[in-house]
Specification:
This protein has 496 residues and is α/β, with parallel strands linked by helices. It has two domains: 2-240 and 446-456, 3-Layer(aba) Sandwich (Aldehyde Dehydrogenase, Chain A, domain 1), CATH 3.40.605; 244-429, Aldehyde Dehydrogenase, Chain A, domain 2 (3-Layer(aba) Sandwich). It is 42% helix and 19% strand. The protein has 16 helices and 18 strands. It has helices spanning 31-50, 53-69, 71-82, 86-111, 148-159, 173-186, 199-206, 219-232, 254-266, 286-298, 317-330, 361-364, 380-387, 403-412, 447-453, 478-492; strands spanning 11-15, 22-27, 114-116, 125-133, 136-140, 163-167, 192-194, 212-216, 236-239, 244-248, 276-282, 334-337, 351-354, 371-377, 395-399, 417-420, 441-442, 455-463. A seven-stranded mixed β-sheet has the order 12-13-14-11-10-15-16, with helices on both faces. Helix 2 runs antiparallel to helix 4 (86-111), helix 2 crosses helix 6 (173-186) and helix 5 crosses helix 15 (447-453). The chain is globular and about 85 Å long. Bound molecules: nicotinamide-adenine-dinucleotide. The site of nicotinamide-adenine-dinucleotide has 31 residues, from helix 7 and helix 8.
Length: 496
């Protein structure tokens, strides 16, 4: 939790969501502080971009190794700031280092300058395409996965040759500062810097002259960031919220589906952008699935020394969860496990809702809590139509034993990523780009597309000899133009 930082005070103090005890205080970076960081980053960016791919790779792999050797300390910092169990935090570290490794090792093959075909008519041109860094990337991150999520931008931006100024969530600055300290252990240049503070500091970063902004957070904040970016035509990648649907076909392995629904909906207290918030199940297996999900929800422990998940990191989110549940019930939905009484001051026990009207908040808006709506559908076409009928489009999942059917449904779902017979199965795959459509944002992190997201394509065409047809001149000859007239139907006149 943070105190008073957005109203002009100079310090923000974090607290442990598990017991409210203060953790540490951090400066609120002013507009001048942020500009200074970007100024330093610009110098560092020139140096970093000037290194060969292999040299950057060596620094990034050393960075990864330094973090890995101290992974438990980082996990403890994440756990303290977010309230999540230590094991969850440690998994977050492992997942993130996999991406850092992938980005470091694939930057050269993906981004190095390559020859492209110039085509018959341009036989006298040697054409190459390379990807050059933007310069300084401003990264703004959320609190729910305070290492994994921003590092999805940071790792790929650094590997592509940019310097980064990172503004973490006001709830989790300690994780970011820890990471920046590790950077300084492996590199004495300010290629990665952290500025701390709240929304105002984030807004300062957007306006501090960065060459690209990588924003991860709510859709509402993304719109404000995009408006600010438009003032300077600063490009933006926006990773926003979701309302992921999971479809269960009659032929699905219901135990596996229920396991993954419980994990995807309740894990991390539901505070996962690609968490499962809605389930559409074919009518015939609806009761069996609901029973199995409830069975698993009953086994969840939210108090004591070894909870399944922690408290809500953002205390005010309990109000959103309660409002969505109450709205669902008021409109005729039913709670088959838990209910409004499951929402305590800081902790929310699992809530399983069924038969919730499609236009209610629990179906249409991001709840970001350990709740799930299970609605029956007549068939898979209806499931797909309902899954696609929200303003979001981040992730989705489908459960079926029929691989072809699964792939077909995956193609029909309007989402950036779809998993078949699992949830979050993509998250550790370095080669798969990640990002949303519609209100879930645009642009991609991870994978080759993630590396290109933080690069500018730069084309070079080198003339190797004089062209037979001299067309690039103010004094074209009638003979050459006659040749052009004959060439057009020859080159493009056939419709195939
Ligand atoms: P948030 O939008 O409140 O804040 C995110 C970050 O943006 C914070 O660092 C905040 O200080 C900063 N910020 C807010 N307003 C700003 C502004 N006007 N200008 C500049 N910076 C600003 O989101 P949150 O509560 O921290 O995170 C939860 C949200 O993030 C959820 O919607 C979740 O789905 C989403 N999320 C998305 C992904 C993804 O990859 N798509 C991953 C994790 C979380």
């Amino acid at each position: 939790m943070t105190l008073l930082h957005d109203d002009g005070t100079s310090v923000l103090t974090t607290t442990d969501p598990r017991d409210g005890s203060p953790i540490a205080s951090y400066p609120v970076s002013s507009a001048d502080d942020v500009r200074h960081a970007v100024y330093r980053a610009r110098e560092a960016a020139a140096w970093w971009a000037g290194l060969a791919f292999g040299e950057r790779r060596r620094v990034l792999v050393a960075f990864k190794a330094a973090i890995a050797r101290d992974a438990k300390a980082l996990a403890a910092t994440i756990a303290r700031e977010t309230g999540k169990p230590d094991g969850d935090a440690l998994l977050e570290v492992m997942l993130t280092l996999g991406h850092l490794d992938w980005a470091a090792k694939n930057a050269e093959p993906v981004l190095k300058r390559r020859k492209v075909k110039a085509g018959l008519v341009n036989y006298n041109q040697h054409a190459t395409l390379g990807y050059v860094p933007y310069g300084v990337v401003g990264v703004i991150g959320p609190w729910n996965y305070p290492f994994y999520t921003p590092m999805g931008s940071i790792s790929y931006a650094l590997a592509a040759g940019n310097a980064v100024v990172f503004k973490p969530s006001e709830l989790t600055p300690g994780t970011a500062v820890w990471v920046a300290d590790k950077w300084r252990e492996v590199c004495d240049r300010p290629v990665l810097q952290v500025v701390t503070g709240g929304r105002a500091t984030g807004a300062n970063l957007v306006r501090a002259g960065v060459d690209k902004v990588a924003f991860t957070g709510s859709t509402a904040s993304a719109k404000k960031v995009m408006a600010a970016c438009s003032e300077t035509l600063t490009p933006l990648v926006a990773e926003c919220g979701g309302k992921d649907a999971l479809i269960v076909a009659t032929d699905a392995d219901l135990d596996a589906a229920a396991d993954f629904i419980a994990f995807g909906a309740l894990g991390n207290a539901g505070q996962t952008c690609v968490g499962v918030e809605r389930v559409y199940v074919e009518q015939r297996v609806r009761d069996a699935l609901v029973d199995k999900v409830v069975e698993r929800a009953k086994r969840v422990v939210v108090t004591g020394d070894a909870p399944t998940y922690g408290p809500m990191t953002l205390a005010t989110q309990t109000g959103v969860v309660a409002a969505h549940v109450e709205d669902a019930l008021a409109r005729g939905g039913k709670a088959v496990f838990g209910g409004p009484e499951s929402v305590a001051e800081r902790t929310v026990s699992p809530i399983v809702l069924v038969d919730v009207p499609e236009d209610s908040d629990a179906v249409q808006r991001e709840t970001f809590g350990p709740t799930v709506v299970i609605n029956a559908v007549a068939d898979l076409d209806e499931a797909v139509a309902r899954a696609n009928a929200t303003d979001y489009g981040l992730g989705a999942a489908v459960f079926t034993k029929d691989a072809r059917k699964g792939e077909r449904i995956a193609e029909q779902l309007r989402a950036g990523v779809v998993t078949i017979n699992s949830v979050l199965g993509f998250a550790a795959i370095g080669a798969l780009p990640f990002g949303g459509v519609k209100g879930s944002g645009f642009g991609r992190i991870h994978g080759a597309d993630g590396l290109r997201e933080f690069s500018v394509p730069k084309s070079i065409a080198r003339q190797t000899r004089k062209a037979a047809l001299n067309l690039l001149t103010l004094e074209r000859s009638p003979k050459d133009m006659h040749m052009v007239e004959r060439m057009i139907p020859m080159l493009h006149g056939k419709a195939r």
